[in-house]
């Protein structure tokens, strides 16, 4: 159950992180965002990042083996990176319709999935 909670919270956390890091690139397309300065955009992104941390920290605490969770520190980071890339790919397809994901992106993603397998494999 802690593993499921960890993955769910990491997914939610990454949703906020992706919007904080890349969502502001779409602000200029909206009337309210056309004249925002860099400092305003940074504060909006920080606000989103706050919600990222509300999920990221509990996810890592619930998932970390030393705190009773099922994952090592390296496994937690690997899960987080795989979720981040997945979330980024979905975000790109949904919100940046002019950006196209090519075969090389899919191969790169497959290699990251392979990395997850290798890191979780008991040798």
Describe the protein in words:
Pfam families: DMT_6. The chain crosses the membrane at residues 7-24, 36-55, 76-96, 102-120. It comes from Mucilaginibacter terrigena. This is DMT family protein. With 123 residues, the chain is an all-alpha fold. The chain is 72% helix and 0% strand. It is flat. The mean pLDDT is 91.
Explain briefly what this protein structure is:
By secondary structure, the protein is mostly helical. It contains four helices and no strands.
Q: Which labels suit this protein?
A:
0% strand; flat; 123 residues; 4 helices; mainly alpha
Write the layout of secondary structure elements.
Blueprint: H1 2-22, H2 38-63, H3 73-95, H4 103-120
InterPro entries: DUF486
Keywords: Membrane, Transmembrane, Transmembrane helix
Organism: Mucilaginibacter terrigena
Molecular shape: flat
Largest sheet: none
Number of helices: 4
Domain unit count:
1
Order of helices and strands: HHHH
Q: What distance separates the N and C termini? A: 25 Å
Low-confidence stretches: none
Radius of gyration: 17 Å
Count of DSSP strands: 0
| Helix-strand category | mainly alpha
């Amino acid at each position: 159950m802690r593993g499921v909670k960890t993955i769910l919270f990491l997914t939610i956390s990454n949703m906020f992180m992706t919007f904080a890091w890349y969502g502001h690139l779409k602000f200029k397309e909206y009337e309210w965002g056309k004249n925002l300065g860099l400092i305003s955009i940074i504060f909006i992104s920080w606000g989103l990042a706050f919600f990222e941390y509300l999920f990221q920290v509990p996810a890592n605490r619930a998932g970390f083996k030393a705190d009773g969770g099922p994952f090592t520190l390296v496994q937690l980071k690997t899960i987080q990176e795989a979720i981040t890339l997945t979330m980024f790919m979905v975000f790109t397809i949904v919100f940046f319709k002019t950006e196209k994901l090519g075969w090389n992106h899919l191969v790169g993603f497959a290699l990251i999935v392979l990395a997850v397998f290798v890191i979780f494999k008991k040798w």
